[in-house]
Design goal:
Helix content: 40-55%
Distance between the termini: 20 Å
Number of strands: 11
Order of helices and strands: HEHEHEEHEEEEHHHHHEHEHE
Structural class: alpha/beta
Shape: globular
Strand content: 5-15%
């Protein structure tokens, strides 16, 4: 009986994915879960299996739902995807935080609806105890204590904490921060901004202007003082205020029902099977 139910659930999910692929005229890949525990080699195998299929597309839509993970892993995922696809679009039906936000910036376009959110680009890195912590929050606290020390108002408790800091660990946090912002800036210019040719007044957009826009977006998305929380959801309106162009499909009477139908079925499948990570395309579930 279990096998019959399982096959029925898979069949429903595959049919809803197929409906999306037919409408979009592209491959569709779903990624749900942390961007880290799945090795790059496993991800490579999944993508290569899709590309071996008799149906051939040069365009991919990636439905992404994640709380974040490793920027290094995201970089490897992007390299794999860009090797196989000329165009990549991200659909965020719900949320894509931290490294997920960086991942989205590697796309030619990002699709969100009014309820979708991205997050600040605060990399999660392991500390000396093996626990993942938000690097920017840690660095901000260190800088706060250093500033207090210079002003002579650092408490004894804060001084003890500051003295116990592992400088190697601190450097790894700084490197994670720098990698995160560098990747975001590079991908925005190379992919997201590649078709941004003219300003609204008709003037040509220069490479210098693209780099400046990417620099500003990276600076704002990594501003802890602005967002205050690693888990802050940044809406499509807030992203637009950063001058980051997002395609809002809230009122798209064709696309939105297809995305929601698939997403609801997918999350139910994940919940039923208690899956921490779920990757799905038409030849893999």
């Amino acid at each position: 009986m279990k096998s019959v139910v399982e096959e029925t659930l898979k069949d429903v999910l595959n049919k809803k994915l197929a409906a999306l692929e037919q409408y979009l005229g592209a491959d569709v890949l779903n990624y749900y879960g942390s961007l880290g525990p799945v090795s790059a080699n496993n991800f490579l195998t999944v993508i290569e299996d899709l590309k071996k299929d008799v149906v051939k597309h040069t365009k991919l839509y990636l439905i992404l739902t994640t709380t974040g993970g490793s920027a290094e892993m995201v970089e490897r995922y992007v390299n794999i995807l860009r090797h196989h696809y000329e165009e990549i679009y991200f659909i965020v039906p719900d949320y894509a935080y931290s490294a997920g936000t960086i991942f989205c910036m590697s796309g030619d376009n990002i699709f969100m609806d009014y309820s979708s959110v991205l997050g600040p680009i605060d990399p999660q890195v392991p500390n000396k105890d093996g626990k993942y912590v938000a690097a920017l929050g840690y660095l901000d606290k260190v800088n706060e204590f250093i500033d207090k020390a210079q002003k002579g108002i650092l408490t004894n408790a804060e001084l003890i904490w500051l003295k116990e800091i592992d400088l190697g660990e601190l450097r790894s946090f700084e490197q994670a921060r720098d990698l995160t912002t560098d990747l975001l800036k590079k991908w925005l210019v190379v992919y997201k901004f590649k078709n941004w040719s003219n300003h609204s007044d008709g003037r040509l957009v220069t490479l210098k202007e693209k780099n400046a826009r990417a620099e500003d977006i990276a600076k704002q998305l990594s501003d802890n003082k602005k967002w205050k929380s690693h888990g802050k959801g940044i809406s499509i309106n807030e992203l637009s205020s950063l001058k980051l162009k997002i395609t809002d499909y809230s009122d798209d009477l064709n696309l939105r029902p297809l995305v929601r139908d698939y997403y609801n079925a997918m999350t139910e499948y994940v919940r039923t099977h208690s899956l921490p990570i779920f990757v799905h395309h038409r030849v893999f579930i």
